[in-house]
Amino acid sequence: MTEEKWGEVREGLRRAVGASNYKSWIEPLEFDSLDDGVCTFRVATTFLGNYVSTNFGDQILFHLNRAGQTVQRLRFQTANIARPPASPAAEPAEPAAATDEVEFRPEARLTFDRFVVGKSNELAHAAARRVAEGGQVAFNPLFLHGGVGLGKTHLMHAVAHEIAQRDPSKKVIYISAESFMWRFITALREKKMMDFKQMFRSIDVLMVDDVQFIAGKESTQEEFFHTFNYLVDSGKQIIISADRSPADIRDLEDRIKSRLQCGLVVDLHPTDYELRVGILQSKIDYYEGIYPGVTIRDGVIDYLAHRIVTNVRVLEGAMTRLYAFASLVGREITVELAQDCLADIFKASDRKVSIDEIQRKVCDHFNIRVSDMIGPKRLRAYARPRQVAMYLCKQLTNRSLPEIGRHFGKRDHTTVIHGVRQIEKLMQTDSQLADDVTLLRRALEA
Ligand SMILES: Nc1ncnc2c1ncn2[C@@H]1O[C@H](COP(=O)(O)OP(=O)(O)OP(=O)(O)O)[C@@H](O)[C@H]1O
């Protein structure tokens, strides 16, 4: 394949993945060679290669083959390419000077309309909407936290879209904490701190993604703290995201933790089955637009939502691969096709936690004995942890309800259903219980 051909393929990819993804992830790839069905690209970092392979590999394969190249596999070779750190967000791919305006155009598809709301993300969604409406917002900052691929970045971009629509004069900036640090260090080196400060302090809404990244980086934390204080004191809105709550970010100074906590801290919980179904259904139109003529059989969405429980990004990756593959081989998408085509994703997503492990962890947490949990006693002190464990078994294992019941002293599956529902209901009103369950879940998934 020639460089030129790759140029053509890239154009197709630009339309398929969107301008922002294209700039961050596809443009930095340098075509190296195509031998024996293996297409090799040079990339600046291993991370870039891995990310592209996981998230865009199927689309690249599809577009290469559609352009007449016979490619079965992609290979990413780390080479000495001078590139800035890639970020999954819509930041410029070329290294900007520390004091250049942060260029930010929210990704077109990341709007509130396309964000599917379920129990696990409804509070985060409502808070983001409230911030987007503007006016006096009682909580500043809004701190969104949760595991990977659960929609934090999506919500931030959605806020930016909404604000731009309501008041285009507002300066809304989204930046990853990594990029913030990089700009700060460069400004220090180039003795341009005044310009740096000026630039960040002229913002109306500042969004910082993955703030856990600055933990342990003392001078960056210090500067972040000053910027943060200045903006909040000037009545400007800040939205922060991280993979965990402020209190749980190690090596973050206490004064920063407490400032981050003084607004509204909202957790995006892992998705439940219903939300996964909703998200997959909402994406069908999008995929049908990219792969016209490919149809998906009833039952496939349910199957995927049941099998893939990790995060929404993986769900999307599975859909992309299915559509690309079905389009390539001219077949409709069936459960059988999904089984063939997604075996590796299913394997990675298969829950490995056992019922025994869940019971032990829950008992440790509530300080009771496993024999009491599975025994006949109905005291609240045993019944509640039992229901929590049943709920976690339903969420974290592929075991059927009767199987779960058998592990809890041969209880009937209706008892398990009752226990699961009870916990779901209580988590809405009892924040202590909700925290307990979240903590246990994270510990078991870790
Ligand atoms: N509720 C949702 N409805 C529709 N799409 C969603 C939802 N949640 C996540 N997604 C999609 O899943 C993908 C990953 O989401 P996003 O990048 O916002 O995750 P994140 O929480 O920021 O993850 P990370 O911590 O890895 O950056 C995106 O393509 C996003 O559009």
TrEMBL record:
GO terms classed as biological process: DNA replication initiation; regulation of DNA replication
Taxonomy, superkingdom: Bacteria
Domain Chromosomal replication initiator DnaA C-terminal: 354-423
Keywords: ATP-binding, Cytoplasm, DNA replication, DNA-binding, Lipid-binding, Nucleotide-binding
GO cellular component terms, A-Z: cytoplasm; plasma membrane
Region called Domain I, interacts with DnaA modulators, residue ranges: 1-82
Compartment annotation: Cytoplasm
A Pfam family this chain is assigned to: Bac_DnaA
Region annotation (Domain IV, binds dsDNA) ranges: 327-446
InterPro entries: AAA+_ATPase, Chromosome_initiator_DnaA, Chromosome_initiator_DnaA-like, Chromosome_initiator_DnaA_CS, DnaA_C, DnaA_dom, DnaA_N_dom, DnaA_N_sf
Domain annotation AAA+ ATPase: ranges: 138-268
Protein residues bound to ATP: G149, G151, K152, T153
Example of a GO MF term: lipid binding
Domain notes from UniProt: Domain I is involved in oligomerization and binding regulators, domain II is flexibile and of varying length in different bacteria, domain III forms the AAA+ region, while domain IV binds dsDNA.
Subunit and interaction comment: Oligomerizes as a right-handed, spiral filament on DNA at oriC.
Family in the record: Belongs to the DnaA family.
UniProt-listed HAMAP family: DnaA_bact (MF_00377)
Function: Plays an essential role in the initiation and regulation of chromosomal replication. ATP-DnaA binds to the origin of replication (oriC) to initiate formation of the DNA replication initiation complex once per cell cycle. Binds the DnaA box (a 9 base pair repeat at the origin) and separates the double-stranded (ds)DNA. Forms a right-handed helical filament on oriC DNA; dsDNA binds to the exterior of the filament while single-stranded (ss)DNA is stabiized in the filament's interior.
Protein name: Chromosomal replication initiator protein DnaA
Native organism: Wenxinia marina DSM 24838
Upper lineage: Bacteria, Pseudomonadati, Pseudomonadota, Alphaproteobacteria, Rhodobacterales
